[in-house]
Amino acid sequence: MKKILFLISFCATILVGCDKEISLVLDNNNPTLVIDGSITDQAGPYFVQLSLSTPITTPTTIVGVNNARVIISDQTGVKDSLLFVSNGLYKTQKIKGIEGGTYNLEVVVDQKKYTASATMPKKVNLDSLRINTFPFNGEIRYSVIPVYTDPVTLGNSYRFIQKINDTLDPTFHVFDDNLNNGKVNQRPLRGGDDNLKVKLKDNVFVEMQCISNASYLYYNSLNQQSGAGPGGGTAPSNPPSNIEGGALGIFSAHTVQRKTITIR
Amino acid sequence: MRYKIYVFCFLIFLGADFATATAQQTLVLSGSVRDKQTGESLIKAVVRIQELPSAGIISNEYGFYSLSLPKGNYSVVVTQVGYETLIQKIKLDSSQSINFYLQTKNVLKEVVVESSRKNDNLTKAQMGTETINMSSINKVPVIFGEKDLLKTIQLLPGVKSAGEGNSGFFVRGGSADQNLILLDEAPVYNATHLLGFFSTFNSDAIKDATIIKGNSPSQYGGRLSSVLDVKMKEGNNQNYTVNGGLGLISSKLSIEGPLQKNKSSFILSGRRTYADVFLKATEKFKDNILYFYDLNAKANYQINAKNKIYISGYFGRDELGLGQDFGIDWGNKTGTIRWNKIISNKLFLNTSLIYSDYNYNVKLKNGETNFNINSNIKDLNLKQDYTFYANGANTLRFGFNSILHTIKPSTFSGTVINSVSKEGRNGFENALYLTNNYRANSQFTIDYGVRLSMYTLMGGDVYNVYQNGIVNSSVKLSRSSFGKTYVNPEPRITTNFRINDETSIKAGYARNIQHLHLLSNAVASSPSDQWIGNSYNIKPEVADQWSVGYVTKVFKSNFEFTAEAYYKYLQNQIDYKDGAEINTVSDVESVLLYGIGRAYGVELLLKKKEGRFTGWIGYTLSKTERKIDGINGNNWYNARQDRTHDISVVGIYDLNQRWSISGVFVYNTGDAVTYPTGKYTLQGQTLYQYAARNANRMPAYHRLDFSATYEKNKTKRMHGSWNFSLYNVYGRENAYRISFKDDPNNPTRTQIIRTALFKWVPSVTYQFKF
To answer: Is the distance from CB of B183 to CB of B193 less than 8 angstroms?
Structure first.
């Protein structure tokens, strides 16, 4: 569907579209707690970042929440109180993430409690990365395809973090297996950002995460809202999150695999 | 049970009146009303009797009329806007069939949006209805100079555009899919070309169009908000003519003529855009494809004085492509065969067999792999419609409509995926209807009736039954078997009370039911929009609309002023969950959410229909809200198209025999949208925080367009005209989209970017006829 949205903006461009910065009077929310926590199958420590949302007009910065009590526990009875590092960042001391494990996060800030639960999916092996080329408006474009075989059971979700020469691709690449359940993936990581084209000789780093369906929904709604449809795609809202208690953000338990490829 | 009561009341009402009417010996005057030059039948012409002020009838869709009168000598007055009034003396001593031929008025004095007769709006019970005559919209300026029915309709109060340059529209707070768009009775599922910038209606092939904003008579049904009934031209049955137009964006050509003089005719009309020709000229875009074409064809054949057959068809297709990489094509096909039969001088029957098909295909190619998406919806539709001119006071209309829908949801295929061949779902939609138009006296008219609509789920697919979002059970129906049936009565009533020659008041109530629903993840129409029928979870959408109206002549009867107020309550509205992929999810019903809606408002229209200066001022004050379980904390929120104020001003002035000028000004409150109320950083990216849905506003939209038409001297053979127009005269950059992003020069600062589509769009069109 992205494609169609892209096409609409393409048509719009040839009909002399025009972008201009404007100012608007915006309402401001009270600062809201943002929780960004994850636990992976890699060696710890794992981190939970707590911050507060800020008004649109102020410079974007992480306003850390430093007075919280943060606990991650698992089903084996391990209960890990996280240590404060700096500016709202907390790290685990002993808990270990394993495939299939369920983890509970508890955050208490000013006597207010927030909880989340996440189960780490089984790892699907990232076999390799390969290069996909296609002609586009008279030039050759490149993209990277992560090669993995989706398991036969339906309902696997993946997230890919892509860095092109150490620059983070801002697209949230999330795949489900609605269409290619049980197949070898052939879908490329195609960024929506024209300023971040993959070129010859670029080094592309890809981190593959096997994520839960809740995480998929979270990132996919962020993607849909960034869509460039008429009037701005779907009506934006805070993405559906697995955090209870009214905080923004996500607590994810996922596996991690990393690979790099050079475009040639 | 409730509908039995409605039917009962209906019969009582009718019966009482029959008893009084049959006491009198009456004769019948019937026939048809036609254009003298072309032989086209004239719809909604008024046939009345000078000597009997309460006797009068409006010709039907095929120009047929029937009047019950006592024996006597009469002057029959036949009027139709755009035509010279015809007064014909007749001696009625037995029932007679007479055809009336009207002479067109000087084109210069033609009128733009019109009701069919000077006092028409005062005497008809119909509410919220406007008829647009295609031959008269030529002079209204439109974007790209492409005269467009749907964009002209958007200038009427209560009808709102789906966006800049867009042919999609919203009526009285309804969604875009809640408009029933009929082309010669065939439903058109996607009425736009080129992602909404053009309508599927080639104005050269269209005779007229009527929009009814929710209070439609019971022969119409299936959509909640409005009926847009578009009639194709029949073709000239006197002479061969060729019409054409050359524009910057598209060109078109129509040929019409008699098959048998006076008896039968045909019209063939085609149109094609050539934006892709310009694309080919640029190095960067030379591999891209972007065009559409459409073809309208119609023929009619008069078997004898009592039987006539019409065959009409439409075929349109859009093609878009980006090199080898991506392509999408979509289009509608419709076909209608109609058989008019005059059973007696009081009973008119039309039988229609209608076919309608909409489909789209998306092709994606990615190096060695390819991927296709396609979807289609097909209707086979049989309709019988009787009009019974019972007596001077009652005209009954009744009939049935059976539609077999075949809906194939988005299906994916390709080398890299599991080609899930989703079974199409069938639905069987049936309706019975009965309406009586009762003229109690010259002051009071009432239209009352009921439509009984039924929708039966049919086999071909598994229907899951969800409870709180979890599959509770599932029903597998084999291909030809029937599942659940929804039965909904739709009572409708409109009344008109004429206070005096200048003023009348109206009131109405209507219930409308919709069995097919559009799932769209874009605000405006997109070719990949998916239709879905009722199921065990999706219930028929219901709209109840109450309205009152006031019509009066002002300023020495030169202007007509109309005010209408409405309140509409919507049930079983559909939306879907955040983050859901409605196109790829295996059962789309698992991600749907349901709720209610309400819309209310006041519409004012001041219109001048005759003279050198014509035009109108329309103003709408309205509110449109939705409340969906699972959205916005289950609270009411503004629908996106909730625009508080909406103003349109249209003016056309004939300077002299050759030049006429026209202008359009529109102003509306910006769409209801959701702006962020805060921001935060997550994994190195700036994300935005939102509060209530659609609680903010886009900047107000306003625009002025101007056009001038130059008519060349008519020669015997050839007639040509030039139209020059400028869209958005003062170059306002109206916001099409507002987006928030990091300032590339200072990433900690958030930029608010307004995207505008068009600044000035000049165009020139040459129109010819010979």
So the answer is: no
Question: For B622, phi and psi rounded to 5 degrees?
Answer: -150, 165
Q: Please name the amino acid found at residue B635.
A: N
- Pick from A29, A136, A184: which is nearest to B323 by CB? A136
**For residue B267, how far is the Cα from the chain centroid?**
22
Asked if the Cβ–Cβ distance from A36 to B683 is below 8 Å, we say yes
Class for the domain spanning B129-769: mainly beta
CB A178 within 8 A of CB A156: no
Chain B positions touching A228 (Cβ under 8 A) are: 737, 739
**Beta carbons of B64 and B30 less than 8 angstroms apart:** yes
Closest chain B residue to the Cα of A219, Cα to Cα = B579
Would B2-117 and B129-769 be classified into the same CATH topology?
no
Across chain B, which has 770 residues, the per-10-residue mean pLDDT values are: 47 43 69 87 86 83 88 89 86 88 66 43 69 72 79 90 82 90 89 80 87 91 93 88 85 90 90 75 68 91 90 90 78 92 91 93 74 86 93 90 89 70 81 92 89 90 81 81 93 92 91 90 63 91 95 86 95 83 76 93 90 90 93 90 93 88 93 90 89 89 91 74 88 87 88 85 85
Return the domain boundaries, chain B: 2-117, 129-769
Q: Residue B682 and residue A188: Cβ atoms within 8 Å?
A: no
Q: What is the ipTM of this complex?
A: 0.90
Q: Which CATH architecture has domain B2-117?
A: Sandwich (2.60)
**Residue of A15, A20, A222 with shortest CB distance to B758:** A15
Cross-chain residue pair A235–B736, CB shorter than 8 Å: no
pTM, whole model, 2 decimals? 0.86
Cα–Cα distance measured from residue B675 to residue B149, given in angstroms and rounded to the nearest whole number: 34
Cβ of A132 within 8 Å of Cβ of B579? The answer is: no
Distance from CA of B383 to the nearest CA of A (A): 37
Cβ–Cβ gap A248/B689 under 8 Å: yes
DSSP-assigned beta bridge partners for residue A254: A40
Q: What is d(CA B511, CA B489) in angstroms, rounded to the nearest whole number?
A: 8
